[in-house]
Amino acid sequence: MVALALSTSAHATKTILIFGDSLSAGYGIARADSWGNLLQTSLQKSHPQYEVVNASISGETTAGGVRRIVKALNEHRPAVVIVELGANDALRGTPLSETERNLNDIILKTKKANAKVLLLGIQIPPNYGLDYTKRFSALYPKLAKKHKVSLVGFMLKDIPPEQFQADNLHPNAVAQPQILKNVLPSLTQLLSVK
Questions:
Q1: Which residues, 6+ apart, have CB-to-CB distance to 85 below 8 Å?
Q2: Structural domain tally of the chain?
Q3: Which residues in the chain show pLDDT less than 70?
Q4: Does any domain span residue 3?
Q5: Whole domain around residue 123: which residue ranges?
Q6: Which residues make Cβ contacts (< 8 Å) with residue 148, sequence separation at least 6?
Q7: Is 89 among the residues known to form the active site?
Q8: pTM above 0.90?
Q9: What pLDDT score was predicted for residue 2?
Q10: Which of 3, 151, 171, 184 is deepest in the core (most CB within 10 A)?
């Protein structure tokens, strides 16, 4: 019984959970081409002890993330959670205070479950005015500093306009390796910390 519990626990500490929305769920592209799938392939070479579980849902908001996080943590027992949420909040004009509160809650619950957090920053087009756009972008560094968690400043950095789908919101399959390139250094650093 004890040996079984130990082996289950040891196996569970090797999971990396991607907890996001359509930007991580591979919206509009083959699942095999998504950056989460590319991450698993990359880690098989560098960190074969880690398994990537993608619990991202297209259309997810931070409020939906709050409702799902505890179940996801209990089910997957991750060592690391990559939190990528907030874009849909911005598209819906959700008050920033609510988005911040929800992300704060997700980070706290993840840390309470003894998982490390990698927060992926999002930037939005200035549809809701320059003030909202600036404050939204500043939210991620603010939360990372407050909770002392790792941060990728902008997950879609260096993706040119032609590598977005027709909606101009979702990166296409060609862009996915660049997303991985943006995420991987911070994740690898996190995996090396005991």
A1: 19, 20, 21, 60, 61, 62, 65, 102, 103, 106
A2: 1
A3: 1-13
A4: no
A5: 10-192
A6: none
A7: no
A8: yes
A9: 39
A10: 171
Report helix, strand or coil for 151. strand
Distances (CA, A) of 192 to 44, 104, 118, 149, 189: 15, 25, 13, 14, 5
For residue 26, being part of any structural domain is answered with: yes
Helices (H), the chain: 2-12, 22-25, 35-46, 62-76, 87-91, 96-112, 130-147, 176-192
Is residue 164 within 8 Å of 175, Cβ to Cβ?
yes
Active-site annotation holder among 21, 42, 89, 170: 170
From 11, 58, 167, 192, active-site residue: 167
Encode pLDDT of 95-129 as tens digits. Answer: 999 999 999 999 999 999 999 999 999 998 887 78
Catalytic residue among 21, 22, 34, 76: 22
Determine, yes or no, domain membership for 160: yes
Q: Is 147 a catalytic residue?
A: no
Contact yes or no for 183/171 (Cβ under 8 A): no
| Cross-strand pairs, 119 | 83, 151
Annotated catalytic residue 33: no
* DSSP bridge pairs for 116: 80
Residue 2 lies in a domain: no
CATH of the domain at 53: 3.40.50.1110
Find where tokens 């849902």 sit.
57
Tokens for 158?
């260096």
Q: What is the pLDDT of residue 127?
A: 76
